[in-house]
Amino acid sequence: MLIEKHKNELLTLLISMMNEKQNCGRILRLLILFCLYGICLPPLHAKQDIASPQQTGKTYTIKGVVLDFNNEPIIGASVFIPGTSIGVATDLDGNYVLKVPANTKNIEFSYIGYEKKVVPFNPKDLNVFRVVTMKEDSGIALEDVTIVAFAKQKKESVLGSVSTIKPAELKTTSSNLTTGFAGKLAGVVAYQRSGEPGEDNAEFFIRGVTTFGTGKADPLILIDNIELTSSDLARLNTDDIASFSILKDATATALYGARGANGVILVTTKEGTEGKMKLSFRVESSFSAPSKEVEIADPLTFMKLHNEAVRTRNPDGALPYLESAIAAREKGLNPMAYPMVDWKDMLFKDFTTNYRGNMSLSGGGRVARYYVALSYSRDNGILKQVPSNLFDNNIKLDKYTVRSNVNINLTKTTELGVRVSGTFDSYQGPIQGGSQVYSQAIKASPVLFPAMYAPDAANQYTNHPMFGNYGTSANYLNPYAEMARGYKEYENTVILAQLELKQDFSFITEGLKGRLLGNVTRTSYYDLQRSYTPFYYALDSYDKKKDEYTLSALNPDLGTDYLGYSPGSKKVGSSLYLEASLSYDRTFVEKHNVSGMLVYTVREGKSGNENTLQKSLPTRNLGLAGRFTYGFSDRYFAEFNFGYNGSERFDKSHRWGFFPSGGLGWVVSNEKFWADKPISKVVNMLKLKGSYGLVGNDNISNNDNRFFYLSEVNMNNSGRGMNFGTNFDEGYNGISISRYANPKIGWEISHKMNVGFELKLFNDLEIQAEYFKERRTNILQERADIPSLMGFQAPIRANIGEAKGQGVDISLDYSHIFNKNLWTTIRGNFTYASSEFSEYEEPDYSATPWRSKIGSKLSQTYGYIAERLFVDDEDVANSPKQQFGEYTAGDIKYKDINRDGIIDEQDIVPIGYPTTPEIIYGFGFSVGYKAFDFNCFFQGSARSSFFISPLRITPFAQPYDPDNELGGKQANNALLQVIADNHWSESNQNMYAFWPRLSDTAISNNNQSSTWWLRDGTFLRMKSAEIGYTLPKRLTSKAKLENLRIYVSGTNLFNISKFKIWDTEMGNNGLGYPVQRVFNVGIQLSL
């Protein structure tokens, strides 16, 4: 039977490889081997004995049918005599015929997923074997089955590193699934940098980041076996998820070959189950507000300290604000003449409301089963409505999802799965985006002009809004006008259609199954803007006695009072995925479990409206993968996996990559010496496991550089042309090279090692701990040692980089039922992942070895070591010369690392921790008493650092604007309260004050990346809490309800951190749209 299995698998392999010309020789050799197997072995049929040893004495013939609990025949069930090799498998109708020696004591019936049934053999009563009914194995619960690559495995036999979580534990008060990852999944490093609807995806990596190339570093995401994006995952409804697995090591991910180097997130959606129709609803409403806001000093403090900033740097300079102007504002005089604007208050509300709802139908009969789900969510921003606008300028994100999963039994051995899903996003919000609006509120002076002017005498009949501005050119930033002047909208659609055909080939040989899957994905996106040009006004004069003012129009010919239209980008895309697999799983003589699988995959992707030739070309990939496992007596396990993948990105000479892996496992607690000892009552399960293997990554650069084996030449470059003629008025464009061909560029390869154990104590406590190491080789990098004299026009790239990483991840789950009224669960996990450069081509740093990246962390921060602030001018004169422009007492003093008396780039060193957290952890508990339940969860992060950008928060100065968010407008940074409270001054000569000596311009010396601006990213957050009440059955049954639960919950309730200016988890994005604190109420019911 084992060889018969290999014959079928080899046949599938041969068929799947026929289209690959380069595999012809390999196919021929396999074909010869296949034929030899076929000649040497006789065929086996369902009604034949599994083995027919020499028998002596009288025999009896028993025959009958094996049925399941629904009286349906079971195909391929084993019928055998325990302790012998005599047995058969049932046929297509569940029938069997077996010859039995007279001395037989028992006949055993078994099938995967069903309880073994032992029937005593009595020659005088053979009728008991005519109809044998088997029960489902209640011992193989959902928790005992793990979703792995392309299949399911019994948890006990899994040797790879796989983390699973119940979908309900991922549920958050947000419509974004990824915001619930942090701290809940061992091995996953996740953090959220923004709370803006539509932009609030968490960044997440599996066991950190171990590559420094420009390509893909995040994990492969598969939803129902289809590769999708993190945005698609974010939109997935937790109520639609059946299983959620994280594949981390080589054994778990090797089957994905070229795509699995960064780990895999594997999600399956729910399917219908046999039974009456079940209707479920969930409706939620929530209130959200910033978890922490940046505090801005009041306008009077702004003016006084702005004067101080000028005076402390230039005692003879003209002060920006007269004392009379400050006094007028203190008295609260006319705000049109003496404005004091709280831009944040003008732009943002204290909170907003959001809504979510979903519904699902499931059920079915013996032939067909269905699961249909609909969901809708509305996420609103915290922007205020502009009264003068006829449109809503707040953020509104509507999400609609529909899903239909239908399974149909075409025959007794054939099942057809039809899955269709669609997600539809509709967004409307400010033109700049919520984060830019929030940032602009901190980039505008609060005292130059009001947000809007009330009409003066000359403008009593002016119909358009009169936005404030300054000077004569309307070139100052007015955040209110920027928010009010229009909106943008986009529509994003993702539709998937999938057919899956499963065939049970147990009529050929027990345990053999086949599967075909085809999926088509269609995506579309467009955006547009509708806006008007604001009319700007400035204060022309003000009569204090009459309290009257006149205004001057700054742009009367440019302003508009209607919405214009500006089309944006349009993208359409499609992808085709085909998969064929053949699997075999069988247990011999009750002890030897053998399984195998071969999977052939084809992928093609197309995208329209791309802006470059390379991006417009289709992407195609082929892959062949296999898994082979062996288990002995549920104690010893071995597994071999491989991925054999082809990538279009590389030259034909090494376009195909082979990525093997292997693993071993030992369930110590299943040993006889363990089971008979008292320790088995304490340690109920102990498994040791280890694996090693290779996984590839072909996505080593962005899509603009897909084909490294080809040169990219611009044949019509005007910058490389020549002119000639009498007046040089004739000319031709020239040629330039933007990429040089390198046919040797190939796969980035990950060498992964994993060892660990799984432990269960007192039947209540489960612990899983793993230690992992990874070496990433062939990382694509630009050559740094090629002299510029060689005249290359473009960088030279090669697979020369290497990195290594290591760490541990630990998970703990405790559950206990005290009595029928009281239960509790406690859970926690811990992940430590650290990676560093091991090979990196860089300049010769032998004289300054601290500048070398080799040995440093991958996302390490670099900068100067700031010792303190200068005490006085004497301190400045007696210190090493700092090469960053002028500086004086109260400015930052840096450490001279190489002691040459000069502070320059030679003194830059690694500082702080990496920007990607090295430690992520979480812990929480749930408790239930009668109809009440309560749970809470804490999330933590450690060993990470981030920079506060002094350029972005320098008060009074023109804002640093590298992304051109201001569109060239002038502005004056607001004054953060932390700067107002703690800065160096003549009266506060604190050498360790938060802010150096004030200035109304950016001081280059103080703006260097250094430890002065580096902050510890460690925090502990109460991520969620929920209390619920489930109505008793005696009440729900009267209303013909199966279940009704009411609950209230909260997210991001509080945060513990040394850093107090903004939410620590936002890192260096603290001036963006804040992460939200959410309070939620919901109701869930089932009919």
UniProtKB/TrEMBL annotation:
Q: Which residues form the TonB-dependent receptor plug domain?
A: 155-264
UniProt entry tagged with the keyword Transmembrane = yes
Q: Does the keyword Transit peptide apply?
A: no
List, alphabetically, the Gene3D superfamilies matched.
Answer: Carboxypeptidase-like, regulatory domain, TonB-dependent receptor, plug domain
What's the main place this protein lives? membrane
Q: Which residues form a coiled coil?
A: none
Q: Which family does it belong to?
A: Belongs to the TonB-dependent receptor family.
Task: Name the chain's protein.
Answer: TonB dependent receptor
Q: Which organism is it from?
A: Bacteroides caccae
The upper taxonomy is: Bacteria, Pseudomonadati, Bacteroidota, Bacteroidia, Bacteroidales
